[in-house]
Amino acid sequence: MPEYKAPLRDIRFVRNEVLDYEAHYQSLPACQEASPDMVDAILEEGARFCEEVIAPLNRVGDTEGCTWSPEGVTTPTGFKEAYRQYVEGGWPSLAHDPAHGGQGLPESLGLVLSELTGQANWAWGMYPGLSHGAMNTLTAHGTDEQKHTYLTKLVSGEWTGTMCLTEPHCGTDLGLLRTRAEPQADGSYRVTGTKIFISAGEHDMAENIVHIVLARLPDAPGGTKGISLFIVPKCLPAADGSAGERNAVSCGSIEHKMGIHGNATCVLNFDGATGYLIGPPNKGLNCMFTFMNTARLGTAIQGLAHAEIGFQGGLRYARERLQMRSLSGPKAPDKPADPIIVHPDVRRMLLTTKAFAEGSRAMVYFTAKQVDIVKYSPDPEARERADALLAFLTPIAKAFMTEAGFEAANLGLQIYGGHGYIAEWGMEQNVRDARISMLYEGTTGVQALDLLGRKVLQTQGEALKGFTKIVHRFCQAHEGDQALGEFVAPLAKLNREWGELTMKIGMAAMKNPEEVGAASFDYLMYSGYVCLAYFWADMARVAAAKLATGSGDAAFYTAKLQTARFYYQRILPRTRAHVETMLSGAGNLMSMAESDFALDF
Q1: CB count, 10 Å around CB of 447?
Q2: Range of weakest confidence among 16-30, 129-143, 261-275, 418-432
Q3: What are residue 475's phi and psi, to 5 degrees?
Q4: What's the Cα-to-Cα distance from 292 to each of 133, 295, 302, 321, 573, rounded to whole Å?
Q5: Which runs of consecutive H residues, i.e. helices, occur in 321-479?
Q6: How many whole angstroms from its chain centre is CA 266?
Q7: Which of 90, 228, 478, 556 is the most buried (most CB within 10 A)?
C-alpha cells in the first residue's frame, strides 16, 4: 500500500501564490480570523491526522468492508475510533456557524480538509463528508427549532447525516419517486418507502443518523413539482436532546460493491417513520439542491483525490523499480537496470497524473472561493456573480475532474505493470474506489446535459461568458509576455472557439433538440480541458515570475512550468477530437432503429 503524504507544498502554492487566499479572506469580514498562521496550523494538524490515523485504515476498510446484521451495520476495524478522534479534534465544526457550535471558519478551508481525508481514505471520509450537506441544508431551510435540535449535534459530530433520494425504480428522474409522507395531528409526518444507494446510511460511528429524505405529500402534484423534503432521524431526539427511542427506519441490507468497501451503501426502509418537513411543501427538490450542490463539489474533490494517489503511488514506484536501460544510455550504471522513471512512456503516465491532480486542485480551490463569496460577501452583486460562476463550474468540476481522476488512477496502476493488478500495492483499490465518482451525484452524462442544456443554452450563453471573460482578461493582460506566450496564445484561441462552438450547437438544437444530448458529453470534456488550460496558464504565470526573480524553490517552479508545457502539448490537443465529435451531429447516434442494435436476443 503506498504511503500517503499530504501534498501541503502544492496546496499552499495554489492557495497562497496563485489564488491569494490571504487577500480573499481579508476581503470577507466573516473570514478575517482565518489568518495565515491559523490556516497553516490547521493544514499541518489536518495533514498529520490524515497521514497517521486515517490513511493506515484505507486497506483495512477495503479488505474487511462493513458487516450487516438486523441490529445495524458494523464498520471496519479502527473506523469508529478514528471518528472519535476526529470529533474530539473539532474537525466537523470547522466551517460552520458558531451559533450552532461551529468554529466559523471559511467553507474553502473545510474543503481542503475534505481533500486530505479523501486522499487518505475516501471510504472513511464519506461518513463525516455527507454530514456537511445535511448541515448546509438545515442551515438554509430548517426552522429555528430544527436547527437547535439537529444542527448542533451534526456540527459537533455527535450525529451524522445522509441524503436519501434514490429509489429502486428511479435514480436521476426523481419525478418518479414513490416514498410518501402522511401528515399527523402533532405536525409530524409518517414517512413510508424504500431508498437505495444511501452512503453512510447505517453505521456504528455515531449515536444517531439524521436522514434528509425526499417524499410526496398525499395531495402533491405529480412529477418533480410534488416533492417535499423531510428530516427523518434514526433515533427520535429525547427531551434532553440526546438520541432517544428508535424510529421506524431500518437498514434492510448493504450493497456488495466494486469499491469503497469501508463505507456502508444501504437500502433503507422507512416503515411509517416519524419525519419533519423542511422548507415549504412541494418545494423539496429546490431545498435538496443545497445538499446536492455541496455533494457535487465534494465528488469533484474525489476526482482530485484519486488523481493525487495515482500520482504519488506511481511516482514512488517509478523511482524504485529497475527495468531495462534508457534508450539514450544507462542512467544508473551502478545498478543492473535503470529505474523506470527514465523511460518516456512512464513519464507520459506520471506527467498525466500530475497534470490532472495539480490542475484539478487549482480548479476546485478557485471554485471554493466562489462558495466563500456566495456565503460571506456583504456585496449582493459579488454574491450574484460568484453564484452564477459556481453554477457554471460545478457540473464541469464534478464530471470532468472525476473522469480525469479515474484516468489518473488507471495510469497509476499501469505504471506498476503486473504488480499494479495485485491488491497489496493499493493501486487497484484506488481504481475501484474511483469508479463510483462518475456515477453518483449525477452521472457524467447528466452533468453534461445540465451544463450545456440548462447552464449554457438556457441562459443564452451568459453563464459561459462569466468564465470566458475571466480567461479573456488573463490573456489580454499577458499577451506580450514572452515567458507565457506558449500558453496565452493557444488559450485565447480556445476561449474564442468555446463561444463559437456553443453557438453552432445552439443553432442545430433549434432544428433538432436531440443535438443537445448528442453534443453534451464532448462539450463538457472540451470545457474541462479548457478550464484546466486556464488554471495551468495561471500557475505558469506564478512559476515564471518566481524563476525570473530567483525567489523560492527553483526546482518546484521549474517543474510547474514543465508540467504546464506537457499539459498544453500532450493533453490539451484532445480538444480537437471533442470538437469533431460534438459537431458531427445527432444523426450518427439516433438514426439506427432500436431493433437494429442486436437481432439475436
Answers
A1: 27
A2: 129-143
A3: -65, -40
A4: 7, 5, 15, 43, 33
A5: 344-376, 380-415, 427-435, 444-449, 462-477
A6: 21
A7: 228
Give catalytic residue positions: 441
Cross-strand partners of 253: 267
Q: 524 and 456 in contact (C-beta within 8 Å)?
A: no
Phi–psi pair at 590, nearest 5 degrees? -105, -10
Question: How wide is the angle at C-alpha 169 spanned by C-alphas 166 and 170, nearest 5°?
Answer: 45
What amino acid occupies position 54?
Answer: I
Q: Which residue has the cell 430544527?
A: 146
Contact (CB, 8 A) for 400 and 528: yes
DSSP state of 416: T
The pTM of this model reads 0.97
Q: Are 318 and 350 in contact (CB under 8 A)?
A: yes
Please state, rounded to an integer, the average pLDDT across all residues of the chain.
95
Give the pLDDT confidence of 329-388 residue by residue, as tens digits.
999 999 999 999 999 999 999 999 999 999 999 999 999 999 999 999 999 999 999 999
| Sign, CA torsion 576/443/360/340 | negative
- Maximum Cα–Cα distance for the chain, whole Å? 84
**Residue whose C-alpha is closest to residue 144's, from 99, 94, 207, 210:** 99
Q: What is the 3-state secondary structure (H, E, C) of 18-81?
A: HCCHHHHHHCCHHHCCCCHHHHHHHHHHHHHHHHHHHHHHHHHHHHHCCEEECCEEECCCCHHH
Question: Hey, is 308 helix, strand or coil?
Answer: helix
What are the residues whose beta carbons fall under 8 Å from the beta carbon of 492, sequence distance 6 or more? Answer: 471, 472, 475, 479
Question: What is the mean pLDDT of the segment spanning 155-180?
Answer: 91
Whether the Cβ atoms of residue 331 and residue 347 lie closer than 8 Å to each other: no
User: 286, exposed or middle or buried, with CB in 10 Å at 0-12, 13-18, 19+?
Assistant: middle
Whether residue 120 contacts residue 54, with contact meaning beta carbons closer than 8 Å, is answered with: yes
Q: 422: Cβ–Cβ under 8 A, 6 or more apart, which residues?
A: 428
* Predicted pLDDT at 290: 66
| Among candidate residues 76, 33, 46, the one with its CA nearest the CA of residue 261 | 76
Domain ranges of the chain: 448-589
552: part of which helix (H) or strand (E)?
none
- Measured between alpha carbons, how far apart are the two ends of the chain, in Å? 44
Cell numbers describing residue 433: 474506489
- The amino acid at residue 515 is E
Model confidence over 198-236: pLDDT tens digits?
999 999 999 999 999 999 999 999 888 999 999 999 999
